[in-house]
Design goal:
Two copies of one chain form a homodimer. With 315 residues, chain A is α/β, with parallel strands linked by helices. The first copy, chain A, contains twelve helices and twelve strands. Chain A has three domains: 35 residues, no CATH class; 128 residues, 3-Layer(aba) Sandwich (Rossmann fold), CATH 3.40.50; 128 residues, Response regulator (Rossmann fold, 3-Layer(aba) Sandwich). Chain A has a six-stranded parallel β-sheet with strand order 2-1-3-4-5-11, sandwiched between helices. The radius of gyration of chain A is 24 Å and the shape is elongated. Chains A and B meet through helix 3, helix 4, strand 2, helix 5 and helix 6 of A and helix 3, helix 4, strand 2, helix 5 and helix 6 of B. The structure holds a DNA duplex (16 and 16 nucleotides).
Chain lengths: 315, 315
Amino acid sequence: MSAITVSRALREPARVAEETRRAVLRAIARLGYVPDLVAGALASRRSRIVGAIVPTIAGAMFADTVQGMSDAVHAEGYQLLLGAHGYDLGAELALVQAFIGRRADGLIVTGVQHAPATRRILAASGLPVVETWDIGRRPLDMIVGFSNFRAARAMAEYLLARGYRRLAFISGPLRAHDRSRPRRDGFRAGARHAALVELHMTDGSDMRSGAKAIVELLARDPKVDAAFFVNDTMAAGALMECTRRGWPTPGRVAIAGFGDFEVAAAVAPALTTVRISGYEIGRRAALMLTARLAGKEVSHAIVDLGFEVVARDSA
Amino acid sequence: MSAITVSRALREPARVAEETRRAVLRAIARLGYVPDLVAGALASRRSRIVGAIVPTIAGAMFADTVQGMSDAVHAEGYQLLLGAHGYDLGAELALVQAFIGRRADGLIVTGVQHAPATRRILAASGLPVVETWDIGRRPLDMIVGFSNFRAARAMAEYLLARGYRRLAFISGPLRAHDRSRPRRDGFRAGARHAALVELHMTDGSDMRSGAKAIVELLARDPKVDAAFFVNDTMAAGALMECTRRGWPTPGRVAIAGFGDFEVAAAVAPALTTVRISGYEIGRRAALMLTARLAGKEVSHAIVDLGFEVVARDSA
DNA sequence: ATGAAAGCGCTAACAC
DNA sequence: GTGTTAGCGCTTTCAT
């Protein structure tokens, strides 16, 4: 029996006689044969690999997204090649190049800001690409996310509606290319003429830096009555710090977060936040990509998953 | 100029004349040539891919580990193929097969419990393998982790030393093959003759189920004075629930967690826990693997990263 | 329903 | 320091 028959028995069972197919399967089981997908990829020019690039895997923000991508990609018979760029666009470029060199069938990247060289290479590769965690007028190709600007603006409006008058926006380092900036801009837009102080911590956006931030904020401007944090992790850290110091929230200062991470509903008092689903972003991005790869017309190349202000006790 | 010269200019610049090398680089830049690593892998029989399998990516437990693997693997010039099996050994087998079929140069798996077929295939493949998050007498090949049994036992001894007399062990579903069981066994061993109640929540091991668990526990046995949770996420959820109900911790009940996740130090009261480093486990596992692949003798095939009981305020 | 021939794009091995 | 030859293990294409 020739190699091609084995290949067909595995990939297109219908095109092989029932008896032949069974013989092949028996032999495979006996010999412990494992098809070489590398050779297959070279010959067929399809690797069944999806490359995914996130800023970071640790932390509640993108871990869910990676999980969503992993689940969807494996369900569709693909494998996930993963890279983290640490908010460095140069590192993102290197990863894109490496993944293209690996002949990934498609790529998922985070955000809409990329180095010019990255855009160029991506376009030249002709690969399907999904951008995530944002919504842009002109995606590279496909995009799934939500408007960070509008989400943050909605939170500012919510806080104003609740009667808070002196607002603060708190984030980690404000980079040119992450999602802190549109959130800051959106919050500014929503704050309108209300007093607004901004604080950008240089040492991260984790719970500890949230705790430091709330103390620093109130030292700098004791009259602030509501603080919006760029993510729930920071916000929860701030909330705990207030508890520790006996500052009631929202009595002393109201606190709001972003993301509706697990911690948001669990802390006491429960955290007012903006709900978005990282898992769903990852899942949808992967499904759009694999649908396109299966030759299906992807009608909605721009998927806005939206957001929702979740009013809880902290603000 | 022949193809092999280009290949050498890229992979072993020293073996090519300086001038030739520069000409190659210029041409590559001009043409936008991207070497096909799939073809390279087929020809050289080395893919420079590391396959990694974790139970889940979401959640504080393994996200750090994946980050550590990603960082180390990329630093060593490899790519990371990632899969999550959701605590299903059958799914683990499927991933192992797929990664071997992809001709990964080595594999990182979680834990020491694997389906017989998985062990067989792994052995037959001859690939270097690192098991993680545990320590076993007889690893498949290499292993990096710590003793879950001893870590949990140490926590029981700590609680006893602090004067608690009626202990509880709380986990999510107790599977045959995850790390809840050795922790439970270790805690039992450490509890000796002290009263011990065990509670296994069926619906997960997240903050919400931790919150439910502490209520259920104290309803069932109001005299319990210290509860040890299988991870910090559950413990933090329980802690918050106590705060919400006005139950002082440790006044009403002491609470201890496992992992020293970010949340442990940040909650109020700060959480007593067992410190281990998921990031370091991932990083070391990847480095052991790449060292072996580089032909280096890996002297310590068994790396015990240890643990440390961190006494804070909650217990 | 099955097979033969060719070749995917690279690198190992061996010249020169 | 560079080139030639062969072949990695599959799949494509075209026959039969």
